[in-house]
Amino acid sequence: MQPAPTPPRRPGTQVPAATRTLRVLRFLAGQPDPVPVDRIARACDLPRSTAYHLLGVMVEEGFVTHLPEEHLYGLGVAAFEVGSGYARQVPLQRIARRALATLVDRTGHNAHLAVLHGRDVLYVLEERAPGRPPLVTDVGVRLPAHLTASGRALLAGLSAAQVRAIFPGPEAMVERTGLGPRTPRALKELLVETRQRGHATEDGEVSEGMASVAAAVRDHNEHPVAGVALTYPVAEVAEAGGVDGPTTVERLAGEVRRTADQLTRRLGGGRAR
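^ DNA-binding IclR family transcriptional regulator, sequence as received from the core. Prediction below:
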């Protein structure tokens, strides 16, 4: 007599811990702000003790951030690195290359695409305008996110708790030219201005004599996944604009926002902020 065949197991039943972990990550990714453990346990159908255990391991690995003073949990830096890894791969680069080339044609300045990587931005795509010199923002280069226009555009799309997790104190904030925010409070004020303005800027904080404007590209969950930026010589733009120099910068910023909006729609998101 042949033994009865073993019924097939449902996907995930052989690795319940992995299934529960991914369920928690997906839930946290859909929340606008960090949440308490009871809410996580209910949403993911987990015993409270199991939720605590999973969150503890995920905090150790950097995928979740624990805010003990508020008794809340949110996504950690490692989770953003995973998201940035996806953004660095072929889909985003392929759809962005032509858009950046068009941006360069319209403005005559170098354009680049960067993704958040911990406390840095990683440049994954560059389109150089004819006759323009190379910049420090070459493909593969990492720069401090709080000093770059691309990084500020991305950080402005995160919650205050997420920014605190990335920059918990002044020791996390390096400088290049002596300019830029030196404390989390100064960075918070800068990001508020960025959100109100609708685009990010930097002036001489990465390279002396150079400035940038940037806007964030968002995915279908409205998470910032990349920053589109233009970099230009400060003196040249001021000379071209004369007394109306800021208007010229606004024109460049408008072109950047237009490109970010285009890429956001390609990723299934709404309008870039």
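The mean pLDDT is 83.
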